[in-house]
């Protein structure tokens, strides 16, 4: 298995790669604007009318503005009125290589893609002659250390739910031993009753977000509006550390907080869990919940507890994965003594699924982990190209470098505006950076002011602002971003 996308890089090499990265961005997007281009307010009259019309047939109430994807390029998103905004939100962290990347355009026009799109296969029953190679050259080439297998899915929620199913089925198989299903199990499960319907559960953390399907929504804890009126499984949640910043000033307090959370996690497992917890799921950074971080020591503690109690550890890398944090996978920052059992992915890969290492996580009987499509070969082709571009242009190391540059500049900037921005976090985590506004109203004003000046940016949690630029984001883009942020804060 190739591991070149995970290689470590010296500081000198990172500096060298940063220069190469700049030339990559300029060569791939030679017509990208150097600064935002504004013709009207955002949204403008054309976009406003289009959005009004769209509302007649589609729920558009969450729309920021109507986008012209034909004219979006690189790090700049275009709206229907021809405005081009520096985009550091990138479709909620799901555009890896920038808008209209030529390498992705090339594969999109290939015979491979045409065949995959018009003959979308039921993969579990009719896999294509080239599907193994497509996976090995792409999704599996980028597999996290210790992972050798993958199950492909459609969305991040789907990836998490299929990982849940794998955990439930293997835990039940281990409890059952060598025997087959008995008659009582076969009859009771058709009534959604035990023993055929499992009483096991998935443990998640407070403020987590793992998706909006029924199982994934039961593990989501970030906002009430996500969960209201939807039936939920009575699954347990554990506290996630609430760290204080700057980290160097609160080392003892943060260590105590993480120890408290680890102690409560184990208490929940042996208490409320009653031996029924099949798996635990955790994000390396709680993204939708407010960009909440924890130390590598905390996550090692979580891993130790899962191993002690025979609980599978699922790491949700749907938003953190694919190079954004200066590692291909964010959990690589932890240097765990034992790899997690499963790692889920989606977003920047524009494909979805979960990696695993224990072959028994593939159920013994066919048709148990199954749906019509089981992912999509066309998305696997896109993911393959993304891996190739990241590897060929050293974008993991380059993102680490530009992230350091951006973090240091923002830290200096926020010292000038202490009442407007605090708790900057994401140091040494690539461009996966966030900070807090004083309150939600202040954040809303900040985001709208940034948009008015040509930056598309997003929030998360109660009052956090998060950065999710593409991997084609370099120091010149960081300078533009910081200049506009300073301008906005100076006017607030």
SS strand fraction: 5-15%
Note the gap between the termini: 52 Å
Q: Order of strands in the sheet with the most strands? A: 3-9-8-7-6-4-5
Helix content: 25-40%
Overall morphology: globular
Give a quick account of the main beta sheet: strands, pairing sense, barrel closure. Answer: 7 strands, mixed
Given the structure, what is the number of helices?
16
| Cα-atom radius of gyration | 23 Å
CATH T-level fold name of the largest domain: Aspartate Aminotransferase, domain 2
Count of extended strands: 14
Structural class: alpha/beta
Key structural traits:
single chain, 492 residues, alpha/beta, Aspartate Aminotransferase, domain 1, Aspartate Aminotransferase, domain 2, 2 domains, seven-stranded mixed beta sheet, four-stranded antiparallel beta sheet, 14 strands, 4-aminobutyrate:2-oxoglutarate transaminase activity
Can you lay out the helices and strands and say which pair or pack?
Layout lengths: L10 H18 L16 H10 L21 E3 L5 E4 L2 H4 L8 H7 L2 H8 L12 H7 L11 E5 L2 H21 L6 H6 L12 E5 L8 H6 L4 H4 L9 E2 L12 H20 L6 E6 L13 H13 L3 E5 L25 E4 L6 E5 L20 H16 L2 H21 L6 E4 L8 E3 L3 H13 L2 E2 L1 E3 L3 E3 L8 H17 L1
Parallel strand pairs: 2-12, 4-5, 4-6, 6-7, 7-8
Antiparallel strand pairs: 1-2, 3-9, 8-9, 10-11, 11-14, 13-14
Overall description:
It is a single chain. The model has no long low-confidence stretch (mean pLDDT 94). The chain has 16 helices and 14 strands. It folds into two domains: 23-104 and 394-491, Aspartate Aminotransferase, domain 1; 121-375, Type I PLP-dependent aspartate aminotransferase-like (Major domain) (Aspartate Aminotransferase, domain 2, 3-Layer(aba) Sandwich). The protein is α/β, with parallel strands linked by helices and 492 residues long. The strands form three sheets. The protein has a seven-stranded mixed beta sheet, with helices on both faces. A four-stranded antiparallel beta sheet has the order 10-11-14-13, covered by helices on one side. Helix content is 39%, strand content 11%. Helix 4 packs antiparallel against helix 13 and helix 14 runs parallel beside helix 16.
